[in-house]
Every structure is written in C-alpha cells, then in structure tokens.
Amino acid sequence: FLFQFKNYKIDNSLDSWFLKNDKNLLNYEKFKKDFGNDEVISIVFTLDSNITDKKNIIFIKNIEDSIKNIEQINKVYSYANTMQSFFISKDKKTTLIIVEPVVFPCDSKLREQTIAKLKEVLDKKFINMPFSYHLAGIGIIYNELNQLSLNNSTIFIFASYILIFLLLTVFIRKPLFIASSLVVIVFSITISLGFMFLMGRSINMVSMVLPVLIMIYCISDIIHITNNYLTNCKGSNKTENIVNALKECFFPCFLTSFTTGIGFISLYFTKIQLLRDFALFASFGIMLEYILTIVLLPILFSFIPEKYTKTNKEVKNIFIDIIYNIIKINKLKIIISCFIIIFMFIIGIFFLKVDTFSIGFLDKNNTVRKDSNYIEKNYGFYTPLEMICYGKKETFLDNKALKAVDLFIQKVKKNENIDKAITITTFIPYITSINEKENIRNILENTSLLKNTVKKYIINDYSTLRVTISCKMLGAADYKKIIDFIIKEGDFLKEYGIELKTSGYMPLYTKIISYITESQIYSFLFSFIIVFSIITIYAGSFRLALFSIFANILPLAFTLGLMGFCGIRLDIATVTISAIAIGITVDDTIHFLYRFKKEQSIQKTFLMTGWSICETSLIFIVGFSVLLLASIKSVIFFGLLIMIFIFVSLVGDLIFLPSLIMQFIRKNNINFKLD
Question: What pLDDT is attached to residue 105?
Fold first, then answer.
C-alpha cells in the first residue's frame, strides 16, 4: 500500500464534485463539446498610456504570440486581434487577454503545468516593465486550491504525529506503549490512504482531513485498551491481562467504530461525488484502524516487560471524583441549563446559510484573491456566466432574432453584478442592420478576423447562439439569484422563438447549494436514526436511550446553532460536520453506557472510564487543532467547529447524561445503583 503513494493526486475541480451521470455535468460536457472550454484564464495589466496606442497594441500582440506557443493553449483573445472595446477598461489603460486552454482532465496535473508555463512566459515579458500582470479565472482558483490542499495535507500529517506523540507521552508516559501505538497508527494511515490511491481517487479539500481523522480515531481505541490494560493488570500472567483488556474493550470499541462508520457512510447517499468518496474511504479507514488496533496492539503488548505496566491512578481518581461530586450536588441545575442551551442554539440553526464561494476559501492576502480584486477594480467583472439561446435552424441568421438578443443583453447589464456581455453582435455590431439571411451568413463565414470567434459563439446550423456575461466573483447563492434575474429578463425572447438556458460551469456551481442541503438533511437523518436505534437496543432501556439522545443533541445543536449565529456558511468543506460529529459524540456515550451497565454504579463508571473519555476527547481536540494551520478558510472553520463540538460533547457525556440518570432513573424501575 505504501507503493500506491506514487499515484498521489490532487483535484479540487468543480466537475470532480459531481457524479458521472449527473445531468448537470452531462450538460456541461455538451457545452464544452459545442463551444469549447469555458475554464478560461484572464490576464490583466495596466499601462501608463492609452491601450489603443500603436506601441501598446504591438506589446499585447507579442504577449499573445508567446502564449500561443504553449502547447496546451487553444485560443487567445485580446484587443490586438479583435479590436473590441470589451477587452479594455473605461479609462483605456487596463487591458484583458483571455486565454482558452484545452479541456483539462480531472487529475488537474495538466492544468498545473499549463499555468506554470503561462507564468513563465509572462514573467519574461514583464521582467523589465514598471508594472506587473494579474491572473484570474476559475482554473487559477482550482490550481491554487490544489496547491494548498497538497501543502496542507502534508502539514496535517506531520503536525498530527508530533501532537499525538506529545499527548501519548503525557497520558501514557511509557515509551514502549507509545512506540506500540505509533506502529498501529502508521499502519492504519498507510493502508487506508494507499487503498484510496489504488482505487484511483484524489486528495481534495474534503479528503485532505482523512489522515487526521484516522489517526485520532485510532488513538481513541488505543487509549481505551491501554488504560484498561494498565489499570487492571493483576498478577504475573501477562497473557491473561491482555486477554482481559481485550474482552473489556472489544465490543464497545467495535460499536464505536461501527457507529462512526455509519456516520460517515451516511454521506454516500448524497449527489456529490467527492463526499461519496470521502464516505467510503473514511468508513473503510475507521473499521481498518479498529481491526489493526485489536490485532496488532495485543501482539505488541506481549513484548513489553511487566515492570513497565505499573501506573499511578491517584491523580486521575481525584480529578474524576471532583466532577462526580459537582454533578451529584447540582444535577437538576445542570439539566435545566443544558436544555436551555439546546433550545437557544436550535434557534441559531434557522439562521444557517448554505453557500459555496470558491475564492472565499482563500485568505484575503492570498495572491490569487488579491489579483481577482485588482482585476475587478481596474478592469471590471470577468467571471463568465454562459447563456445559450436555442432557436430553430437558421434562427440567428434573422436580424430580428439578433436584435432581440442585443436587447436582452442591455436589459441584464442593468444588474449591478453584471458588467459586460459577449456574443456575435459584440464583434459585428452592424450585423443587426442587415436584412438578408445570406448576407449575414457570408459575413459570419467569410470574415477572416472572426472565423474562429464565430465558431465559439454560434452552432453551424445557426440554431444556437452563445452569450457570455461577465459577472462579479460571488458565491453560488448569489449566482443563483443572478441566473434567476437573467432568465426573467430574457422571458420576452420566447416571442421570437428563442429559449434561454444557462450553461457552462455556473449551473454546476449553483447546483452545489441544493446538493449540500440535501446531503446535510439525508446524512443527518440516516446516521441519527441508525446510530440511535443501535444505542436504544444496546442500552436495553428506552429511558436510558432517550437520555443518551439528549446528551448527544446538545453538542449538535450547539455547533450548528453557533454556525448560524456567527454566519459560518454550510459549504462543501463544512457539510461533513454532522456525519463526523455524530460519530464522535456517540463514541464516548457507548463507552459510558457499557461501563454503567457493567458496574451498575455512576461513581464506579466515572472511576473506570471517565478518565479515558477525557483523554480521548482531549486527543480529538488536539488532533483536529492541526486543521487551524490550513490555508483554506472553510477547513479552518471545520477544524474549529469540530473542536468546539468535541468539548461540548464531553460535557454532554460526562455531565449532562449522568445528571439525567441520577435525577430521573430510580432503583425501582431499573436495575442500576444510584450512588
């Protein structure tokens, strides 16, 4: 599996988010087949004199010719080869060059190489210039996200190992046990990622957290088994002590891994491909780490001399006793406070917004984001929104239809988020004054300057016309509003036998909103029903199961409500929170219930498993804290929210749940002792 790391790939492109048979993706593929690649690269620079001056046109032409020599470049459009005012700013000092590359494959390696070659060419052209160039476009953003994902995933792995090693040193304090733990962790991560690469999957802004997830879940099982082994070592029979530790931890650890796996697999029922991949490989990794922990850890323990198994329980017991006594005295106050928090933060969930803002993933000081802001300020909006006008054969050889499209463009340009629009009449404005279809056909087919451009904007039988609208760089939710506005403004085109539809990558981008919403609802309901059905059966008491549900609703409501109150969007990175959160919070609940059923005493439950729950929760928090080192904002939010969730989950399992049990479960209706 280590050998499979040679297949390591990064891909954050929009089409990698969709299932292969998704009708929106198929429509996008058809658009690229009909009109070419819309993943264009915008190059913008500002001169100290008028762009239309001869010397400046020659300079632009030289840049254009150099770019055309790059193998992966299909077409280049500029003021120099079109003489269109679309390519220059209102003050005529800033100009735009549009570079159309070939259609990139999903692995994005070719995109990275092409952008690198383009920068190399531009650096040579601008080396002695008093000004610089600025790059923008969805491909530039994807490439930047890919680079950040690669860098961040490497940082996450190394930072996690360092932090986990330090925590194991603090909690276990025994080098041989720490070494055994690290062996299991390395095996789990290597096999899990190796299997993912073997199956041809790539690293992206969602799957980049997999190594961290697998590591901390692995540590959770290791802590429970190790603590049980060290706490209950009796006599000199090492084998018997190991077997006893396994007996105690085998089923609860299996149940926690199984319920966590269900939490992840619930994401498979979404329509987002990268979430499906994440669901499968996260579930596989969690179950794999459980198997490896159960198999390898006892084998490694068998080589550790017994003199290293002695441990000091006194400090741990004092800490747990303090928590227990606080709960015993204040249980009713705790219950009321927790229910108030639940209801307060449920209100916050109604303020939760669903959106995906690609460039918003980047920090404000990121070069790509600063370039985008510069272009919008000095040139204008550049993000293409493709609209397709469908008519009958030769519809767009009729100047009435062309005039109608011109009127449509004037209408949509009234929107403050729309700047310019390009279609056939942009390049040949006088064509709308020609009445005869044959004359229009001759102009379109025989004007040498526009031959290649015409092919990009009209189908051969003149039944379909493309209109490229330049929009402000916004999130998917705002683009949906713009599309609705455009469709409404273009409704009059039906009178001319023209049907207006969106195309290009923008419909994919906006569709992500509904897919994210569906993913959150379906994954949450599926995992919630299945996981808590298992807990109900396992608890053996409906009341005990109900209390467990309340304890687990607390961190869920708190985290999602906090997102709503703080304006943190539910996007492609944070959508996995519910599935991961349910898996995490249920783990400690299961360990608590298992020990409670066995000991029939709240106090003994605290003494036997309370410290392990605290340790694993702290390790989860520290493990996810490495995500705060990310360069992608949504990943930072994801890490911060999961850390908050785990802390509140610890409160739910060690304070809220025991309070409910002590307050409402009596000896006469359930066979548990209440101290």
Answer: 61
